[in-house]
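Hey L., structure's done. Input below.
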Amino acid sequence: MLTISSGHAHDILAVVASGRVNHEDVEGYLVPAIEAKLQDHASIRLWYEFAPEFEGISVAALWDDAVLGLFHLSDFSRVVMIANQAQTSAMVNALACMLPCPVKVFAADEQTQAKAWLDQ
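Output:
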């Protein structure tokens, strides 16, 4: 499941992944949230957090995410990913290599540092 988190700067999209992320999450929540932010900004910053309850992502959602990344390749100015589990961190680091903007991965207990880096 994906949820959009509030309380961040207007050009930051904050997403929390928990449970199992599927096609409907990407198409129903993530895509509209990105497109809404891009109506007001030429580029946005992304805060993508994997909650401790994150269980995985479906193949369809991975495909959607890849297509979304290609379509919005230059729309992100900076991306922060918050992940704790070893297997999640490995996946996140692999995804980070595919983005053309600065991407940094932080542990859950480093959220203050993540926010400072995202705000640079």
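Residues 46 and 63 are 19 Å apart (CA to CA). DSSP finds four helices and five strands in the chain.

-- N.
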